[in-house]
Amino acid sequence: MSRRRRIYEGKAKILYEGPEPGTLVQHFKDDATAFNNEKHDVIDGKGVLNNRISEYLFNQFNQIGIPTHFMKRLNMREQLIREVEIIPVEVVVRNIAAGTLSKRLGIEEGTQLPRSIVEYYFKSDDLGDPMISEEHITAFGWATPPEIDEMTALALRINDFMSGLFVGIGIRLVDFKVEFGRLYENELMRVVLADEVSPDSCRLWDITTNEKLDKDRFRRDMGGLIEAYQEVARRLGILFENDRPEQSGPVLVKS
Hints:
Elements: E1 6-9, E2 13-17, E3 23-28, E4 31-34, E5 39-42, H1 46-63, E6 70-73, E7 78-82, E8 85-96, H2 99-105, E9 112-122, E10 131-132, H3 134-139, H4 145-167, E11 171-185, E12 188-194, E13 202-206, H5 216-219, H6 225-236
Antiparallel strand pairs: 1-2, 2-3, 3-7, 4-5, 6-7, 8-9, 8-11, 9-10, 11-12, 11-13
């Protein structure tokens, strides 16, 4: 790993120079962070699970025509991705009141929203990823109006698809965050889904019990984060039913 050129390191992932021009290797770390990195821990096996779950979902997105940066999984912790210019706007889609929405508006957590709500946040760790409007995005040149429309449309398509996928395995998609990038191919540019989609970036509740199967278990000191992520992977059919090692990380199947 030391022989590869490191391009960027974030809170949960490292990007390395890829084997071909226009490609990168995305490495998933075991780091768990919350509250703009004020809370931090290393949880054995978390990166392996997020890599595999995100791979599964990105493959599904590619198959239904949602453009992404994902090419293939390389090993237990790494993916080969297309190099994109990240748009510094996080798009959040909310279906059920939870987290900051409940706090901001005084809506009881677990309340079904009248419709899916799309929010935008400026991607800046130093500023704590503040909530922004379309006016901010266009005024400061972070994205053009057509790019905002494309990101919003793709986020809602992702929401429709994942809501159906997860309800089929007994999980409620409460909300999620996605990021997009500009992919340049010859003279053409298109907006594609980037980063990851995993229990780190989604709120996932068991339909029957409302048990949290996402990073809120870490944020709220509930414990059992790895077990929750393993349960998501098991229901998706990418984790052996009876093989859940406690120390060495999860055993994943299906290439």
